[in-house]
Design goal:
With 167 residues, this protein is α+β, with helices and mostly antiparallel strands. Helices cover 26% and strands 41% of the residues. It has helices at residues 28-36, 38-44, 136-144, 147-165; strands at residues 7-12, 17-24, 51-57, 64-70, 76-87, 91-99, 112-121, 124-133. It has an 8-stranded antiparallel beta sheet with strand order 1-2-8-7-6-5-4-3. The two termini are 21 Å apart.
Length: 167
């Protein structure tokens, strides 16, 4: 997708963090809704050609999102997100993990703490995501699993969805 929207993907090996700043051609409330409402998340939260399906979601402090990214052959890759410290249309925090279809956490793969912040940028908005891992090894594992490429492809799907939702 051709655009000139801001995209920064910054790895900090000393702090074990990824910082991702992404600009969207949409107002902040709409972008917030796309990140926090199941019916919208299911339309974009996976890189092409994957799709997303939600098993359960409760976007509230102490709530969760149990979902799968599904490849074209039907293989499901499950994730579990716990929501904390929600401040509507400004930010929320999560703890994210890989799991199975019954939400049993996969202890062999890294867990991460996410801070997802939403800001205005003129007529557009930005989402700044800071993902913190327990160790440099965990950070490197995620990067080697294709986190940057996956984020680029996933956020392009969000661009496409936003274009259909804007008035």
């Amino acid at each position: 997708m051709k655009n000139n929207l801001q995209f920064d993907f910054i790895v900090d090996n000393e702090k074990n963090t990824l910082s991702i700043v992404r600009e969207f051609n949409a107002e902040r409330q709409l972008v917030w809704d796309c990140y926090t409402k199941q019916e919208l998340l299911d339309q974009w939260f996976a890189p092409k050609p994957f799709t997303t399906k939600t098993k359960s979601m409760d976007f509230s402090n102490g709530g969760h999102w149990h979902y799968a990214m599904v490849d074209p052959e039907g293989t499901e890759y499950w994730g579990y997100t716990e929501y904390h410290d929600i401040n509507p249309i400004d930010y929320y925090r999560t703890i994210d993990a890989f799991c199975d279809s019954e939400a049993k956490i996969n202890e062999d793969l890294p867990r991460a703490k996410w801070l997802v912040a939403f800001n205005d940028k003129g007529e557009n908005s930005t989402v700044t995501t800071v993902v913190t891992y327990d160790s440099l090894n965990d950070l490197e594992t995620i990067i080697n699993m294709g986190m940057e490429e996956g984020m680029i492809a996933t956020l392009e799907k969000l661009d496409e969805l936003l274009a259909t939702l804007k008035k």
